[in-house]
Amino acid sequence: MKLAFVVNDVATEQDNYTTIRLARRAVARGHEVALIGLGDFIYDWEEGICAMATLSKVAKFKDDTTYLAHLQDPERERTRIRLGDYDILMLRSDPAEELTSRAWAPASSLLFAQLASLGPTIVLNDPRHLTDAVNKTYFQGFPESVRPQTTITRELDEVRRFLDAHDGRGVIKPLQGSGGQGVFMIDKKSGHNLSQITEAVTRDGYAIVQEYLPAAKDGDLRMITLNGRPLKVDGTYACLRRFSETDDHRSNISAGGSVEMMAPDEDALTIAEIVGPKLIDDGMYLAGLDVAGDKMMELNVDTPGGVSFMEDLSGVDFSGAIIDDLERKVRLQRQYGGTLTNRQLAVI
């Protein structure tokens, strides 16, 4: 199998990223792996979608740190590849990282990915629907029963009106963002700073304001779904609890939160059951559901992460199960002779 990953930039990848774990597992099995940065695509008038890619040696590496050093070797030169020669193209970039310096990059890469999906390459997640999911408005397309009450605005008065209706408590964050960056907890004590907070959050776009979920004080669950269903391997769910051991309310790993493996409770599994049909219909192959109590706080369909932490904590080979599934999709693509659509292959 020939597998390519789209990342923000190979130089900024980190050794705890899920992408690096997946790529290392793939090359250990003998698969050819390429990493492509957002600005590395080429549309060739004769060959279609190409890219300047970092190619990986096919080998078993000691750990993710060693493997990343191999990819980021300053003497390693990029190679021009043709995407039509690749079986899978996995889109694993984080649009939030490009908001200030390269706002053009995420949208451009999705357009190249859409063109690539017209050929034999399976593109995951499906790039047509992923275009609709680049910010948190996508979240509002799921049933009201699984998401907190929300308003999206740039107006300070609208923020105040929402908070007044929710006992002065809520969470305000950028509409486009991730990793706990720019997230503020508002209560009656901090309300006097609301003007400054709203100004800071809306500096680069809209703010999303959500009701405060009491269950979030104990952290949240990050649950990985594959093909629209919770990923479960050898009886263990790909699910961990993220929590803060400080006064910082953010439990995101990238914001310094702690993690432990935890099986999803009935509420979390019910949420996964409810959101699954839309994930399947939209071709969202790999997703990360962030759950607090009986509500889904966020949904990550761009770069759902945490798999490396889950494996290290549990000893369960979740990334291997994902590679197994990608191999299965490639077999189906060949068996059906290209008659299945990209969206179908994404979640079948």
UniProtKB/TrEMBL annotation:
<dbReference type="InterPro" id="IPR016185">
    <property type="entry name" value="PreATP-grasp_dom_sf"/>
</dbReference>
<dbReference type="InterPro" id="IPR013815">
    <property type="entry name" value="ATP_grasp_subdomain_1"/>
</dbReference>
<dbReference type="InterPro" id="IPR004215">
    <property type="entry name" value="GSHS_N"/>
</dbReference>
<protein>
    <submittedName>
        <fullName>Glutathione synthase</fullName>
    </submittedName>
</protein>
<dbReference type="InterPro" id="IPR004218">
    <property type="entry name" value="GSHS_ATP-bd"/>
</dbReference>
<feature type="domain" description="ATP-grasp">
    <location>
        <begin position="136"/>
        <end position="327"/>
    </location>
</feature>
<dbReference type="Pfam" id="PF02951">
    <property type="entry name" value="GSH-S_N"/>
</dbReference>
<keyword id="KW-0547">Nucleotide-binding</keyword>
<dbReference type="Pfam" id="PF02955">
    <property type="entry name" value="GSH-S_ATP"/>
</dbReference>
<keyword id="KW-0067">ATP-binding</keyword>
<dbReference type="InterPro" id="IPR011761">
    <property type="entry name" value="ATP-grasp"/>
</dbReference>
